[in-house]
Amino acid sequence: MKITVTRKVFLIIATLIAFMSGAFFTLAHNDLEGMFRTYASEARHRTAVQWADVISYFYQTENHSWVNVTDSLTKMMSQNRAQHDLPQQLIVLDGQNHIIVQAGVQTGMRDRSMYTTVPIMEGDRQIGTLLIYGEGLDPLYEIEETVIHTMTLATMWGIIIASALALLSGALMARRMTRPLKFILKAIKQITRGELDTQIPVTSTDEFGQVARAFNEMTRQLAATEEARKHLVADVAHELRIPLTIMQGQLELIQQGVRGPKPEDLLPIHDEVIRLSRLVQDLHQLSQAEVGKLQLRKQPTDIVHFLQRLLENFEVEAMDKKIKLELQTIDEQLPMLKVDPDRLTQVFVNLLGNALRYTPDEGTVRVEVTRSGDFVEVALSDTGPGIDPNHVPFIFNRFYRGDEDRSRGTGGTGLGLAIAKEFVEAHQGKIEVTSELGMGTTFVVSLPIN
Ligand code: ATP
Ligand code: MG
């Protein structure tokens, strides 16, 4: 038999019921018996005191002599024979424990502990001790028997019915409680079969509900990752096809003798090889960053100085397009940042490259450095065409390029922003974009201080 959670819960409830019933039963039984015992012993004592009074009365009426007391007692007891609660033996002892009076159907002296013992008093003076045995409490014991018997039966039935109900509801509850587990198990099997986007119903807010929610989130991620992987392969294949086709075409022309293998004829092929190498290098870096294997060679860097030097490299390009390229910093002395200058160079070269590429002649590209809490923010704004709001969510995806760049074959591979994002995030920073069509685009790179 499989030990399922349902069965375990059921077993726990059953054990609990058995334990509780046992405890209840024993306690109730003992209590009741104790109650009867006390009641009986009190009753015994009361009867004994009454008899002691009677004996004291006889003693006094006989002129303080014990001589006729036994006779009076015997007479009295035989007159009351009809009553069931007569004691079987009455014994009076004097101060030296000598038997001086004896009455009743039983004779002889038995163990003292079996007698109820009370003093016989005359006023405040003790004149003897009464030992009384078998003082006819039979009806009381009979009642006790009946009550205990009835109670036992009632408790037993109560326990049986309550247990049955508890077990039934326990079993139902256990089933209900573990039902989400069955869903999860089924879903895991589906995932094993490759149905990655399997979702399970979230029916509660308890731990099972949380597991279900986490599970759904996980499968969503899995499906997205799988989707991305498929896209990546397709994208890479696509990116490789164009340069390869061009190279093939050029090589065929050379082979057919249409073109001689002069250095300038090899130029288009060389261009494509460069493009391919860059693609492979970009892909390599991206994949490394994505699996978190990127080695950062961090060193204290003065970010303003760093940006100044970087901008110098773009001055010629900016001048060609008559673009105003400016760097603005706040007066406050910025702390040194621990960053990898090579990686950051790649990030900003791409951002500046994009900005200069998209900004029309006589536009402006501005770089602003500010401090915001624990971060230094570098904002790159251009006066380019802006990015379509529908495209904004995707521009950090690899191979993503605007429609025009794609169709015209201008621009790069579409990996630049994806790499920038990974590199910035490897520095525990973040990169954000705001853009307005016709107005321009601003990329903000936030880098943590320390
Ligand atoms: P790579 O950087 O790999 O050479 P790329 O520049 O085309 O190629 P990204 O830098 O990732 O690729 O940019 C992705 C796309 O985002 C670009 O093709 C372009 O459509 C859009 N884009 C990026 N920066 C700007 C900008 N400053 N203004 C307008 N569009 C932009
Ligand atoms: Mg780019």
Automatic annotation (TrEMBL):
UniProt-listed SMART domains: HAMP, HATPase_c, HisKA
Subcellular compartments: Cell membrane
CDD domains listed in its UniProt record: HAMP, HATPase, HisKA
Main location (coarse class): membrane
Bilayer topology term: Multi-pass membrane protein
Ranges that cross the membrane: 9-28, 154-174
Domain Histidine kinase: 235-450
Sequence ranges assigned to domain HAMP in this UniProt record: 175-227
Gene Ontology MF term list: ATP binding
Catalyzed chemical reaction(s): ATP + protein L-histidine = ADP + protein N-phospho-L-histidine
Required co-factors: Mg(2+); Mn(2+)
Signal peptide boundaries: none
Pfam families documented for this protein: HAMP (PF00672), HATPase_c (PF02518), HisKA (PF00512)
Keyword annotations: ATP-binding, Cell membrane, Hydrolase, Kinase, Magnesium, Manganese, Membrane, Nucleotide-binding, Phosphoprotein, Protein phosphatase, Stress response, Transferase, Transmembrane, Transmembrane helix, Two-component regulatory system, Virulence
EC number(s) given by UniProt: 2.7.13.3
Catalytic class of the enzyme: transferase
Protein name as annotated: Signal transduction histidine-protein kinase/phosphatase MprB
Protein source organism: Alicyclobacillus dauci
Lineage, top ranks: Bacteria, Bacillati, Bacillota, Bacilli, Bacillales
